[in-house]
Amino acid sequence: MTTVDGSAGPDRSAGALAGRVAVVTGGASGIGRAIVLRFAAEGARVVAVDLNADNGKTLLSDADAAGLDGAVCFEQADVSSEEDVARAIGRAGSEFGRLDVMVNNAGVGGAFGPITEVETDDWDYTFAVLVRGVFLGTKYAVRAMAEHGQGGSIINTASIAGLSGGAGPAAYSAAKAAVVNLSRANSVELAPSRIRVNAICPGIILTPLLHQGREEQTRELLPEIQPWPDYGRPENIAGVALFLAGDDSTFVTGQAIAVDGGLTAIGPDLANRLRTAPGDAGLVGVNRGTTGERSQIRRRLGRDVGPT
Ligand SMILES: NC(=O)c1ccc[n+]([C@@H]2O[C@H](COP(=O)([O-])OP(=O)(O)OC[C@H]3O[C@@H](n4cnc5c(N)ncnc54)[C@H](O)[C@@H]3O)[C@@H](O)[C@H]2O)c1
What we know:
7-stranded parallel β-sheet, globular
C-alpha cells in the first residue's frame, strides 16, 4: 500500500484493530473523521456514515491519499432514521463481512436559547439526532454483532455537557446526559454477550461544529479555558476511541470517560472565582479555621508580596 507521494502507507496488518470492522457515524467531519482515519490506520475496515455526502467524498479521497484505500467506505444516512441506520450498519456486513465496533458519534449543536422560547420541534430534532441516533445505532449494531457471537465494542460520543449544567445549551446538555446513562444501562444488559458500551465525554475540541468557520480565532481562545495548555484536537478523542475499541480495554464497560484537558477536574473553581486563592496573593501555610489555634502563613519562596 502506497500513499500519493509514493511513500509506504501504514502497516495495517500489525495495527491494534487488524481484522476488525467498524461503523462510525458523523464520520465525515471533526471527531468522527479522525476516528475513521485512526481506526483504518490501525488495521480496521471502516464504514463512515454521515448526512453530508460532500464531506464523505473528501474523506474517501483523503483516506486514499493516506494509503488507506479499500479500508474506508462511505454511506450517506441520517442517524435519526431507522431505515437509514439499518441500511448503513448493514453495509458493514455487505462490504466487509462483519461488525466489531460501533461508534455513535454524529451530532449537532441543536436547540439553543431561553427555555421559554425553544421550539418543541427544535427540541425534538436535538433528541432525534443525539439520543435516538445512539439508540438506533446500538440496536442495529448489537444485532450485527450477534451474527458472529464474538462480542464487540460500542462507543458513544457524549460530552462534558452531559455531566453538568454549564457546558452547553439545555437541550444539548440533557441529550448528552441521556447518552451517558444509555451507555451505562446498555453496558449492563450487553455484558453477558461480551459487548462493551462506553461513552466518551469530549471537552472543547477544535472541530467545524465548534469553530463554525472561525478556526484561527477559536484556536487562540481555547488553551486559556482548561488547565492543559494545548487546545483539544479530534485526534485526542480518536486515541481514546482506539483504546475503547481494542483489546487493551476488555475489562472497561459502562464508563463515561472525560477527555477534556482537565476542564471537568476544575469543578466550581471557587478559589479563583471568589479571588480567595492564597497562592495567588503570594502566600503559603495552613489555615486552622475556627479552632482557636493559630493559622500559619508565610510568604512563598521567591515571591515579594510586601507586608502581610
Ligand atoms: N467539538 C466539540 O467540542 C465537542 C465536544 C463534546 C462533544 N462533541 C460531540 O462530538 C460529536 C462529533 O462532533 P464534532 O465536533 O466532530 O462535529 P462536526 O460537525 O465536525 O461533525 C459532526 C458530523 O455529524 C454529522 N451529522 C449531524 N447530524 C447527522 C445526522 N442526523 N445523521 C448523520 N450524520 C449527522 C455531520 O454532518 C458532521 O459530519 C458530536 O456528537 C458532538 O456533540 C463535540
